[in-house]
Write the structure tokens for this entry.
Amino acid sequence: SSHGLLVSFGEMLIDFVPTVSGVSLADAPAFLKAPGGAPANVAIAVSRLGGHSAFVGKLGDDEFGHMLANILKQNGVNNDGVLFDKSARTALAFVTLRSDGEREFMFYRNPSADMLLTPSELNLELIRKAKIFHYGSISLIVEPCRSAHIRAMEVAKEAGALLSYDPNLRLPLWPSAEEAREKILSIWERADIIKVSDNEVEFLTGCETLNDDAIMSLWHPGLKLLLVTLGEKGCKYYTKDFKGTVDPFKVNTVDTTGAGDAFIGSLLSKLVDNQSVIEDEGRLREVLKFANACGAITTAKKGAIPALPTEEEALKLLRG
Ligand code: ADP
């Protein structure tokens, strides 16, 4: 392929979502299965836009794991780095967005297969081919997947990849807020590109309202691009030379699941072929407009993976 390879590392799981919207988990009459896991969503976002991507992670050798591996394949994502664990099961999540706007999560991780990925199992040959290595999920929390995560980052960086980090903070998964903050910040300075949400800035900095000083306190000397997603308000960008805001697109939003993954995936699908975009504010703003369009489109359909846009859909929204 003439495209650069994006390798996305971490979890892929099944989300069980209530058949009825707005209910709490306890009140759900039944659940539908939806494939999910932020790093897997990002890999699929890139391939759906015509890019070249691979997913690296571990699934259970069970019905759910094989279903997920097939979804990667059907979506054109390279799965040479996907392993099946013989003893543990695929991670499951029960997720709902209540009518009061709160998200509720329950997880099956007991432990789940993704947490058991070891450094020696990594497909290093594949990881070394990455132009961009993207990560960010719960694989930082426990061993052995924490060591596998760190080793994969190191190998990718050594081979010349840009490292892209999205913390995807989901506090219910962490033993404590303090541990989450500490472990997220412990790998902060290795990333070349970081995408955080407004809520994550508030959590990581302790500032109650989003402002430039709070955001800039997350800057580190090796960072090339810091992005803050603002939901329906678009996004902010920071580089060593310039900063700004890119306006959102107005769509009929039904479900915001996957919007952040579509946003970073679509941005990376452009950067993976042309890293110099980061140094040119005009071109960067154009790419971020594209990323905002991809995020917006994803909110107009239910689910994450089914809602991720093609290039044509994104261009259509951009043309207006
Ligand atoms: P996350 O919190 O998962 O990082 P956001 O919900 O902020 O992601 O969404 C990522 C991007 O998707 C936003 O920056 C924006 O461009 C777009 N987006 C999200 N929600 C909406 C919405 N309701 N309307 C239009 N665009 C949206």
About this structure: The chain has ten helices and 13 strands. Residues 197, 229-232, 234-235, 248-249, 251, 253, 256, 259-260, 263, 292, 295-296, 299 surround adenosine-5'-diphosphate (CB under 6 Å). The first strand starts at residue 5 and ends at 9. The chain has a mean pLDDT of 95.
